[in-house]
Amino acid sequence: MRGLEILTFIPGGIILLLFLGAIALAMISYAQRTWWRL
Predict the structure, then answer these.
(1) What residues form the membrane-spanning segments (predicted)?
(2) Are 33 and 26 in contact (CB under 8 A)?
(3) If you placed Cys at 7, which of 1, 2, 13, 26 could pair as Cys (CB 3.0 to 4.6 Å)?
């Protein structure tokens, strides 16, 4: 639980959000590519 508390206090939480956002965008772009094939 200490790790989560540190992420909430330190701007690292913002980095985590950006990282998750980048993964989400990557998955969306990958899904669009597969859908265009269909």
Answers:
(1) 6-28
(2) no
(3) 13
Contact criterion met (CB below 8 Å) for 17 and 7: no
For tokens 């939480």, the residue is 13
Helix axes 2-9, 12-37, angle to 10 degrees: 90
Question: How far does Cα 18 stand from its chain's mean position?
Answer: 6
Instruction: Compute the chain's Rg from CA coordinates.
Output: 15
DSSP secondary-structure letter at 26?
Answer: H
